[in-house]
Amino acid sequence: MIVSVKKSVPKGEITAPASKSYTHRAVLIASLGKNEVNLSHPLLSADTKSTMEACRLFGANVEEKTDPETGETIIVVKGFDGKPKKPEKTIDVGNSGTTLRLMTALAGVVDGEVVLTGDESIQKRPNTPLLKTLNEMGAEAYSINGNDCAPLVVKGKIKPGSVSIDGGMSSQFISALLLSCPLLEGDSKISIYNDLKSKPYVDITLEVAKKAGVNIEEYFKRELIQEGIEEDYRVSEVHVLIYSIPGNQKYDLGVYNHGNYAIPGDFSSASYLLTAATLIPGAEIMMNGLFPSAQGDSAIVEILEKAGADISWDKEKGIIRVSNKDGRRLKGIVWDAGKTPDLVPTLAVLGAFSDGEMKITNAEHVRFKETDRLKAMTEELTKIGAVIEETADGLIISGEKSKGQMKGAAVHGWDDHRIVMSLFIAGMMIGDMTIDTIESVKISYPTFFEEMKKIGAVFEK
Fold first, then answer.
1. Whether 195 is catalytic
2. Exposure check for the chain: N or C terminus, fewer CB within 10 A?
């Protein structure tokens, strides 16, 4: 499908969609327990439904029901008490990388062979560190096509022990192991030598696991590493991130708040509307449901503040107000995206319409998302006249040089929800823009277009 976007001025009040990251983890962690759990305010998107179906295949009872008091849809989970069964068919995760990684590690706890696959995009996303670690832990884990991408086969069972894993590609591998290791019969230790990218997502995993009564200790250790041979060597000190995980633990999210767990609002999805309201002259938005949490993308508030936006956050009420009544242009900043990879497409658009230069660094892992987002944003923003340079690990966008020369064009959404929604903001700024593959928004924000229409966006699908 294609959307044609006109110049628009967003105004009004809107509630942030639920967090995709929290919904994934809450569904799985509730499934790992025994008692019934009600998940309120969940995100019911293509990705989270993939996790729901995968948990059903492992033996959990996962249902969508209507809350009799609020009329809202909730997810009710009755888990398999830490004893996942062998799925009777292949697990198809669709487009969800999170589902694939979480379920691949859980498959290592199952006695028997588990096969996992996904769509065309998933079959291009590598899982090398996770497969390597599962094999080191005693499972037989491999890619059918021999490229470390889905379809994957896992033949358990993994055994407790000490392993190291590369944290530079995706935090999802770490989260997957952290959730499965407490089920093992002995203690485990996971050491991460390279910088752990997207660590806030691991923090979300630990937060929800702790609410389910699971103990995982995180600490840093200094180690001396010798490189080279004979006289030609050097010794360097590194800080190793270590997770210590006791075995034989029981998950029970039912003990938290009498079995009622509310999913927080999603800052990744909120970033598009907040950014649009800071860029577009005359815009004024109030967003509800955005309380402090472990989400790294809550940094969008800090980023917009640094860029000079008129923005305020009432953390107690979970309300963010942002406006551009005086038609101000923001200023470019330097931003390390190591912990906030999902904000990169949004920040690229922010930079294109700001003064000065926006420099996004430490974002090489963004190349391994639904698509290579550094390449995608460079190509599409160039089409509308933005001056943008793709580097090995980031982007440099000159809003100063782009000023006055950007105009609408037909751009490609790369079948990537975050690319589509970011380009939609650009379309609201300059008008006369068409974006294809817009159905991809169902991955994380299925009501995106309905919500945009409510606040005054002008477009046709």
1. no
2. C
